[in-house]
Specification:
The protein is mainly β and 98 residues long. The chain has one helix spanning 35-40; strands at 25-26, 30-33, 57-61, 67-75, 78-91. The chain has one domain (18-91). A five-stranded mixed β-sheet has the order 1-2-5-4-3.
C-alpha cells in the first residue's frame, strides 16, 4: 500500500486540474486535506476517469457519504501499468503539511 502520491509527469496532466499532492498527508487509511484542496478534485463517484497515468487524483463519494481520495500510482518494474489507490478523506480546516 502506497502512502505517497507520485508526481504527475505525463503531458496529459497539463489538462487535469488537481491539488498539489504535497498539500495532502496520507497514512494507511486516511488522506488529510483542506476543503479548498478537496474542492479541486474532480468527482468520479460512479466511474473512473479516462487517461490513466501516474499521479492523477480524483475523489469518489460513496452512498454512505464517505469521500475517498483515489489516485494512480507506480507499479514497480512496470511502465505499462498503474496501481489504483484510495484513502478516506478527512477535511482538516487550517491544516498545513509543512
Amino acid at each position: 500500500m502506497s502512502n505517497v502520491i507520485p508526481p504527475m509527469t505525463n503531458s496529459l496532466g497539463n489538462y487535469w486540474k488537481q491539488p498539489n499532492p504535497a498539500n495532502i498527508t496520507i497514512d494507511d487509511t486516511h488522506a488529510m486535506m483542506t476543503r479548498s484542496d478537496y474542492e479541486l478534485l474532480a468527482d468520479y463517484s460512479d466511474s473512473v476517469p479516462s487517461g490513466v497515468y501516474v499521479g492523477k487524483m480524483w475523489k469518489a463519494v460513496a452512498p454512505s457519504g464517505k469521500a475517498f481520495l483515489r489516485w494512480f500510482g507506480v507499479v514497480e518494474g512496470r511502465v505499462d501499468m498503474c496501481s489504483k489507490n484510495q484513502r478516506e478523506i478527512l477535511i482538516v480546516e487550517g491544516f498545513r503539511n509543512d
